[in-house]
Design brief:
The protein is an alpha+beta fold. The protein is about 40% helix and about 25% strand. The protein has helices at about 5-20, 30-40, 50-55, 100-110, 120-135, 145-150, 170, 175-185; strands at about 55-60, 65-75, 85-95, 95-100, 115, 135-145, 160-170. The protein has a 5-stranded mixed β-sheet with strand order 5-2-3-6-7, sandwiched between helices. A hairpin with a 5-residue loop joins β2 (about 65-75) and β3 (about 85-95). α1 packs across α2 and α4 (about 100-110) runs antiparallel to α5 (about 120-135). The chain is elongated. The two termini are about 35 Å apart.
């Protein structure tokens, strides 16, 4: 279902009135339209298919870990509609085929561009890679700051939430999981 920008614009006008603002004043006049366009951009991931994106694969007999580190992502907390953002680290152990590396970052982006919770986002990325590539295993670690926690409620800016999802050999093999974690720590930001 595509973003209904007209409906978003009407809702933003009502929100402005609800918080005591005048949506007809100069600074707010185009705000409903800008917000609708923003939501079209940042919430459009539900209309994209990560499995299809991950189908760009190449036959390759590489049997060692492939890791993409420090992939920036931006998402929207589904509980407060405030952003959370951070970095994702994605690793997989190929089984006869590898994926175009930009597709791993694209999969992260697709799932991040919808109202989310970080725990689900992490699992969705891991599950999509497992389904599309059928590797021996997948590991995903995401570290993010949530503005719903930083600027409201408990107000603890700078606090990081770290989530992980492991599948296959990354879940079953302690040595594989430890190698992944060690490689993430080398030269990390």
């Amino acid at each position: 279902m595509a973003i209904d920008t007209d409906r978003v614009e009407r809702a933003v006008r009502e929100l402005l009135i609800g918080i005591g603002e005048d949506p007809t004043r100069e600074g707010l006049l185009d705000t409903p339209k800008r917000v609708a366009q923003m939501y079209e951009e940042i919430a459009g991931g539900k209309d994209e298919d990560a499995i299809r994106v991950l189908s760009t694969q190449f036959a390759e007999d590489h049997q060692e870990m492939v890791i993409m580190r420090d992939v920036p992502f931006y998402s929207m907390c589904e509980h407060h509609l405030l952003p959370f953002f951070g970095t994702a680290h994605v690793g997989y152990m190929p089984r006869g085929k590898v994926v175009g590396i930009s597709k791993l970052a694209r999969a992260v982006d697709i799932f991040a561009r919808r109202p989310q919770v970080q725990e689900r986002l992490t699992s969705q990325v891991a599950d999509a890679i497992m389904e599309a590539l059928e590797p021996d295993g997948v590991a995903v670690v995401m570290k993010a700051e949530h503005l719903c926690m930083a600027m409201r409620g408990i107000r603890k800016p700078g606090t990081s939430i770290v989530t992980s999802a492991t599948r296959g050999v990354f879940r079953e093999g302690l040595a594989t999981r430890n190698e992944f974690i060690s490689l993430l720590q080398q030269g990390s930001r």
